[in-house]
Specification:
Largest sheet: 5 strands, mixed, barrel
Helix content: 10-25%
CATH topology of the largest domain: Rossmann fold
Number of helices: 8
Oligomer: single chain
Strand content: 25-35%
Structural class: alpha/beta
CATH superfamily of the largest domain: P-loop containing nucleotide triphosphate hydrolases
Radius of gyration: 22 Å
Number of strands: 16
CATH architecture of the largest domain: 3-Layer(aba) Sandwich
Order of helices and strands: HEEEEEEEEEEHEHEHEHEEEHHH
CATH class of the largest domain: Alpha Beta
């Protein structure tokens, strides 16, 4: 290997993150890249007023991996098809942040960067939709001003009147809901139209058919799929995040299934603005600092009593608000 090759740098886009290694698309083709150790550390500065700020200690970053699918990075090329990521070319507001609460870790896991929209996939029956978890997804997407598409997959298995009404409530407050079957292809054309020309991150719990949908959309992707567990819960078949190109201008990002998630930076006073049906009533309450929980003269609760706000959605709001205001707890830690 020549010294010249060692010193070359390239910019590229991260296509896959798996077990500490990334696949990066560059002008010279895809390259397997390690992550430079300095990107896994952060400096903690002294806050003492008696001395000038200086590095007090070095600690691991609060994120499980500093690099996300979709990130633009600068790499140092070490060989014809491998290198090391030296720099992440990203602003914080370019990422869609979630905290994946694996049993062994509560580190932040940023699902994707440079995303145009989120596609949240749910199943019509198996696994049964978790609407509180869906509301958490939507709150985080609203916080990042990220458009969302709800995909109700497996409609060939039947759709109960109760679940159908729940999704009708989401449509009433402005969310797009696409009903389809990845197995038969019914309705997938509508999804393809929603994806065209955008970078979309697919997310949802395991077993709802994210990878099956992507395989239908992109015949060459061949993502692994699997059956449900004995309790009707999804099994974690997708273990890494990956970008698949549907055409030159359309990309989808498959992500591991999430059973629990959280966000950071959301404050209790942010929360009403992240529920569309509450947001449109801001400024109408008797008290300027109304929390919309049990205050008198609350326009939100008046709308709830009048049937303009779905009771289950309001229950999600109250649950999240109490979690965010609980003392000595990380927001949504006990979701």
């Amino acid at each position: 290997m020549s010294p010249k090759t060692k010193s070359q740098t390239q910019e590229g886009t991260v296509l896959r993150v798996s077990r500490g290694e990334c696949l990066v698309e560059t002008s010279l083709g895809p390259m397997r890249c390690k992550i430079r150790s300095k990107l896994r550390k952060e400096l903690v500065y002294s806050t003492s007023g008696s001395r000038a700020p200086r590095v007090q200690r070095v600690q691991p970053t609060q994120t499980r991996s500093p690099v996300s699918v979709g990130d633009r990075v600068r790499i140092r090329q070490l060989g014809p098809d491998n290198g090391v990521i030296e720099e992440i070319l990203r602003d914080d507001d370019e990422t869609w942040g979630l905290l994946r609460q694996a049993p062994e870790s509560k580190q932040a896991h940023v699902l994707a960067a440079n995303v145009d929209q989120a596609v949240i996939v749910l199943a019509a029956s198996q696994p049964i939709p978790d609407f509180i978890l869906l509301d958490r997804y939507l709150v985080i997407a609203e916080y990042h001003s990220l458009p969302t598409v709800l995909v109700l997959n497996k409609i060939d298995q039947g759709l109960s009147a109760e679940i159908a009404e729940e999704f009708a409530n989401y449509e009433r407050i402005g969310y797009s809901v696409l009903r389809m079957s990845a197995q038969s292809g019914n309705g997938v054309a509508s999804l393809r139209e929603q994806l065209q020309g955008k970078r979309s991150v697919f997310t949802g719990v395991s077993g709802v058919g994210k990878s099956t949908l992507i395989n239908y959309l992109a015949a060459d992707s061949a993502l692994p799929t699997g059956a449900l567990g004995v309790k009707g819960e999804g099994r974690h078949i997708t273990t890494s995040s990956e970008t698949i190109a549907l055409d030159e201008n359309t990309h989808v990002m498959d992500t591991p299934g999430l059973r629990k998630l959280t966000s950071w930076s959301i404050l209790p006073e942010d929360l009403p603005h992240l529920f569309p049906e509450l947001r449109e009533r801001m400024g109408q309450c008797r008290f300027r600092d109304c929390a919309h929980v049990d205050e008198p003269g609350c326009a939100v609760r008046l709308a709830l009593n009048g049937g303009s706000i779905a009771p289950r959605r309001y229950s999600s709001y109250v649950l999240f608000y109490r979690e965010l205001t609980a003392q000595n707890l990380t927001p949504w830690e006990h979701a």
